[in-house]
Each structure stands twice: as structure tokens, then as C-alpha cells.
Amino acid sequence: MSKTIDLKLDWATHEAAKYACEKWHYSKSVPVPPLVKVGVWESEIYIGCVLFSRGATQNLVKPYGLKQTEGCELTRIALKSHAAPVSRIMSLAIKFLKKSNPKLRLIVSFADPNQGHYGGIYQATNWIYTGKTPPSVEYLDYRGNRWHGRQVSKAGVKVQFGSARKTPKIADCEKIYCDGKHRYLYPLDKSIKKRVQALSKPYPKRAGSKDSVASCDQQGEGGANPTPALQNQ
């Protein structure tokens, strides 16, 4: 008889999300806020988080005829060794997201082939694939963290979503030329599903994919502070 998995999802603190991203995600970084931070526990042990954000650009969902507040990006799935399928964890996290942000209509996510990712988890859960983004330039800081071109600046300060934020300085980073990322869409209502379904393309090959979350033996501590809605920030 298979053992029942004691899986729990709840809101995570910024500290818990930061720990998971730095320990268990290849980016080693936390996305720019506002964020919805969903923590994940198995047998009362914190095993990571799922993060949603507005994305790196204010035009994330504009191509689909939506306002900025009607869509978001699934930005991180940062987990240590775990028993529950990633697909189940992601599905529950999306329910959390939808409950706290009832006006959301579309989730966008990207799989980075530069990291060996092709979107296997999105393919397994029937996300809509719409092709690759154009090639881009990223920046590698001295800590080994990778940053999108919109997340760095010459002066080390940039206005993002109306607030001035510190950013890595371009002069302190190594420039990296990257292939485009695979783009996946997850509609949250029938109307937008019909709209984006017309953009659907065949899934990219999964051969050699590294989409499963890398294991890690370190344990972290979670939190349960409520997360404000993306639409209210």
C-alpha cells in the first residue's frame, strides 16, 4: 500500500520564499515584487515555494488583449527533495492564486532552454505552448545570479512598477547572449482559453529535459503570513 503524502500549501513569508529560491532554484534569486508567495510543506517540513509575479515587463499579457491586472507570471517553482508530484503542487498553488486574485484570467510561464528546460511540467498539465521568445541578453553578477536586461542598469537603480529599486550595475556583470525561452499559457476562464488556443503550437521535444526540480537535503523554515493580491499592488 502506498504511503499517503501529507502535503500542505499556505502563504509563505518573504524570508521563506527567499530561502527556497536561493537554495533550491537555479536562478538563486527572488523575483521583483509584487509577489504571491505560496509555501509548500510535506509532513510539516518546509520544502519550498511557488511564486507568481507581474513578470519582468508591464506588457506581459497585452498581446492577449488583457490588462496588466488580469494576468501574471508563474515565476518560480523552488523545491527541495519531495514526494508529491510537481504537477499537484503547482495545481494547488494556482488555486491559491486564483482565490486571492479572482480577476486574474491568464498565467504565463517560461522554460529556459539555456538551462536545459523545455517545459515538461507544463506539457504534462496541458498548458498552451505558443513558441519561443526572441533571443535576449542576460547579465551574470559576481554571485553567479543571472538577471534579465530589464533588471539591471548603469546606475544601479531602476524604476519598476512605480518604485525605485536597487539593481545590479551593468559594469559589474558579465553579458551573456541567450536563446529565446519557451512560452506557456494557462487560461483561467473559458473565454480567454478560446482566445489563446488559436495561438497554440506543437510542444517542443522533452528529450534531455531537466525540468524536474533538483534535489537538496537542506531543510528550511516556512511562514504563513497572508500575501496581498497582485491586483492591489
In the CATH hierarchy, the architecture of the largest domain is 3-Layer(aba) Sandwich
Largest sheet: 7 strands, mixed
Order of helices and strands: EHEEEHEHEEEEEEEH
Corresponding CATH superfamily of the largest domain: Gcn5-related N-acetyltransferase (GNAT)
Low-confidence stretches: 209-229
**What is the CATH topology assignment of the largest domain?**
Aminopeptidase
Provide structural commentary:
With 233 residues, this protein is of the alpha+beta class. The protein has 2 domains: 7-132 and 181-232, Gcn5-related N-acetyltransferase (GNAT) (Aminopeptidase, 3-Layer(aba) Sandwich); 136-178, no CATH class. The chain is built from 4 helices and 12 strands. The chain has helices spanning 14-24, 86-100, 120-124, 190-197; strands at residues 7-11, 35-42, 45-53, 71-79, 106-111, 128-132, 136-140, 146-148, 157-160, 163-166, 174-178, 182-187. The strands form 3 sheets. The chain has a 7-stranded mixed beta sheet with strand order 1-2-3-4-5-12-6, with helices on both faces. A 3-stranded antiparallel beta sheet has the order 8-7-11, with no helix packed on it. It is globular. The chain starts with 6 loop residues before the first strand and ends in a 36-residue tail after the last helix.
